[in-house]
Design goal:
Structural class of chain B: alpha+beta
Order of helices and strands of chain B: EHEEEEHE
Shape of chain A: elongated
Strand content of chain A: under 5%
Radius of gyration of chain A: 24 Å
Shape of chain B: flat
Strand order of the largest sheet of chain B: 2-5-1-6
Oligomer: heterodimer
CATH topology of chain B: Alpha-Beta Plaits
């Protein structure tokens, strides 16, 4: 059994322990220990009932920990009186865990870490590596997060939008370390979508699938960023695109539009075009109008200006920039692009250089610097 | 979540508010200062925001390539170099405002007479991975 399949069992097992009266933080630790043992033992001795095995071993880990800690004598006594779990689970424990780990009392960084560990079944070390922080720091972040949600009732239904924000963050932070965070975000969002019928959960899943489909075309050798217009569309994963479009259509059919569906619709229109020229920019502008209406986000307005520039020409795009704050991330890059298309290479080169200085990722700095250099070379 | 560098300069920042060199503090004042920095780092470890901290020796050497088959050229150390970095701390925090808040706290490390040093610290964001979703 591969590790990803093993990890899908983690949240349900945590749920079972919690149902037996173990507090969430302790249950989560016990399951984590059991997962580590499973990774070691299963390749040579695979259990017939993997979930049953994990429940039994987690329970033993919990008892061991309780016995080892003399200050927890009272709890041990409590354990002896433990009622056997009721057959059938009225509430979906996995779903309950999603809500708990994205609880509004948690900071984004803590919610992300706790979700990856308790729902995703990743080890602290894997999460620490993915986020490039020391393992001790990540361990502290997780245990603080657990303490923060200690008083929260396990089965409280939560706000699904907080869960979606956490999953979006995991996906959008890219991928580093030995865990592919984007793939993990997709796995967790799929698992959520299978448990809850919600148009924005589907919208986010579609958005992730449609962007993930383009990943092989997004970077060239040496990590160089390839802009959408220059991507080799033959490298796009058509299966993922087809799935993303299908998931999105089902969501849109419910007629309750939200920001993730609108963003996914933009991504679907890009995915649908064989070339940049064939892109239906007019429809993309309409989706950005919806997105601006839904979120009033300056980032949506900025992206809308790019689409307007393609649909109605660079002058119209520049006009759409007028009311925006020039200190917005990527504003200078967008303005540079529009000025270049408008034929003002001097302004464009200056703005690309300015954008390079303000960019927050290395590939973007390189890309924008190259753009400035390209225009400066043309002018010589 | 983003990483920031809190950079401590001996020289090169805005004019310091208190400019008594450390070698003219009392040993107790120096100990109190160092202890404050240690406690600060320990607190950040507990909040899950600490990445690393390092201090640098003030004297460095400049090195450059000098052509195929030749040893690198060295220059310095320069006693009077304009910008001198003393050390740094790397933090991983939710927001830029949190980075500023922590830098402010670190800048309150005690100096002469046990009073806050009000030392200028430079806060610089690390470059990250590009976001997956950008349009």
């Amino acid at each position: 059994m591969d590790e990803a399949v093993l990890r899908t069992l983690a949240p349900a097992v945590i749920g079972i322990l919690v149902r037996r009266g173990v507090d969430f933080a302790t249950a989560e630790d016990a399951v984590q220990d059991a997962l580590v043992e499973a990774v070691r033992a299963w390749p040579t001795d695979p259990p017939r009932d993997p979930k049953g095995w994990l429940v039994a071993v987690s329970w033993r880990k919990f008892l061991d920990a309780a016995r080892a800690d003399t200050s927890r004598r009272r709890r041990e006594a409590l354990v002896e009186l433990e009622p056997t779990p009721a057959p059938g689970e009225p509430v979906d424990d996995t779903l309950a865990l999603y809500f708990l780990c994205a609880h509004p009392s948690l900071t984004p960084a803590s919610a992300v870490a706790l979700t990856l560990r308790a729902v995703g079944g990743l080890t602290t070390r894997q999460i620490a590596r993915a986020y490039l922080v020391p393992e001790t720091t990540m361990a502290q972040r997780i245990s603080r997060a657990k303490r923060t949600v200690t008083g929260v009732r396990f089965n409280q239904p939560g706000d699904v939008s907080t869960v979606l924000r956490v999953l979006y963050l995991v996906f959008n932070e890219g991928h580093s370390g030995d865990v592919d965070l984007a793939a993990e975000a997709i796995r967790l969002t799929r698992q959520l979508a299978a448990r809850i019928r919600h148009e924005e959960v589907a919208g986010l899943l579609a958005l992730m699938l449609l962007h993930h489909a383009r990943r092989p075309a997004r970077t060239a050798t040496g990590g160089r960023l390839v802009p959408l217009a220059e991507q080799d569309r033959g490298l796009w994963d058509r299966h993922l695109i087809a799935e993303g479009v299908q998931v999105l259509q089902n969501a849109l059919a419910r007629d309750r539009l939200g920001e993730f569906q609108a963003q996914a619709a933009v991504a679907a229109l890009h995915a649908d075009a064989r070339t940049t020229e064939e892109t239906d920019w007019v429809q993309i502008v309409e989706w950005y109008d919806e997105l601006v209406r839904l979120t009033d986000s300056p980032v949506a307005r900025l992206n809308r200006a790019v689409a307007v520039g393609e649909a109605d020409g660079p002058r119209a795009g520049l006009a759409a920039l007028v009311d925006l704050d020039p200190t917005l991330p990527r504003y200078a890059a967008v303005a540079a692009h529009l000025h270049e298309r408008d034929g003002d290479l001097v302004t464009a080169a200056r703005l690309y250089a300015e954008a390079a200085r303000a960019a927050l990722s290395h590939p973007e700095v390189d890309h924008l610097t190259r753009q400035a250099a390209r225009l400066n070379a043309l002018r010589r | 979540m983003a990483k920031y560098l809190l950079l401590k300069h001996y020289r090169g920042g805005p004019t310091p508010l208190h400019d008594v060199p450390m070698d003219q503090w009392t040993p107790e004042e120096i100990s109190a200062h160092v202890q404050y920095m240690r406690d600060f780092a320990a607190r950040l470890e507990e909040t899950g925001e600490f990445v690393e901290g390092q201090a640098l020796s003030p004297e460095g050497t400049f090195v450059r390539y000098d052509g195929e088959g030749r040893p690198p050229v060295t220059d310095g150390p320069f006693a009077e170099t304009k910008d001198l970095i003393a050390g740094w701390m790397v933090i991983d925090v939710d927001t830029y405002d949190r980075a500023l808040e922590l830098a402010g706290e670190l800048s309150a490390a005690p100096g002469v007479g046990g009073k806050p040093l009000h030392e200028w610290l430079e806060v610089r964001p690390f470059l990250t991975e590009p976001p997956t979703i950008s349009e």
